[in-house]
User: What shape does this take?
Amino acid sequence: MNVHTRIRKALEHEEPDRVPTLAQYFEPVFRKKIRKNFNMIERLKYIFEKHWQVRTAKLMGFDSVWYHYGRHNIPSRDRPELPEEIKKKYKIKKVNNWGHYSEYDLKSKMSWYVDGALKTPEFLREWISWLNTWEPADEKHFIRFRKIWDESIRKGVVPIPTGGTVSYGTWSSIGINRFAYMVRKHLNLVKQLAKALGKITMDYQTCMFEHGIDMAFVCDDWAMKDRLIFHPKQWDEIIGPVFKMIADNAHKHDAKFLVHTDGNITDCVPYIVKSGADAIEPLEYESGARLKPLKEEFGDKITLIGNVPATFSLTFGSVEETIKMTKECIDIAAAGGGYILGAGSDILGTCKIENVKAMTETAKNYGRYKKT
Assistant: This one.
């Protein structure tokens, strides 16, 4: 069975030959660890590898991996100008096309979100109007991804595209320090923002589906370690209808809509299921997500992905502890399909290579389905 069939069967709640595996993002520090095991020539090849996500996933034994490939035609010259009053009041220096102010961290070698810029209803209205002018990128970009898709699957890794945002884009472009106010005072505007972001995401995914890509992720964080960023009923009112629109569109193309959010999302799972999403990931163990109750209540309605602790097991645990935790996840969630094994977050810079390999090897050996 090839990797695509294996992933697809799990998403359709059928039992493939064995439990499939997924990796999110491999952090730069983790990839640096991998490079140390190469000779100079291989190290240089790896550094300049175009499709390093796929290469790293293959090296670590994963069946699938995120592939960030957001492609849009953005009329940047028409972007609303950030008012000086917002710049000064919230100390926002530079805003990207998603309405975010981010800063680059030298230690992690990554840019991190700091705040959103859509602080006033007037500026939010202008930004929504501008978002509604976005279009998917030219067809050549999606033809190119189809080549990446086919080539990667031949190599044994499904590169699941990620692009767009709904929930994360909604609260983060406003900013956590202003979001509750905007929901309370300008709920319809917040809904319009979510819908505009959802349409961008749906149109992008449609281009993927029309070129034969039959699954897509939206990376859409809306939770913290101990709770959701906003009430689950508010999520259902603001985000749920937009997710349903995206899920219905995917299903119309015989494709799957996969959702990512870190943090403790347990209270929101019923609403994610209600939206028609096909899978939820990564079920962060350290935030309280537990496979047993999720499998019992929702296992026949949505595919569960992840839950191997990225810190407890993959960072601080031994190989033996990692294998034990991986087996527990398989024992709890694998029956009947609808489960894809993975870490409960990115493969962190702190994760041990030997533990990550132990996780994927355990899936290959212990995670085989018994055929009757």
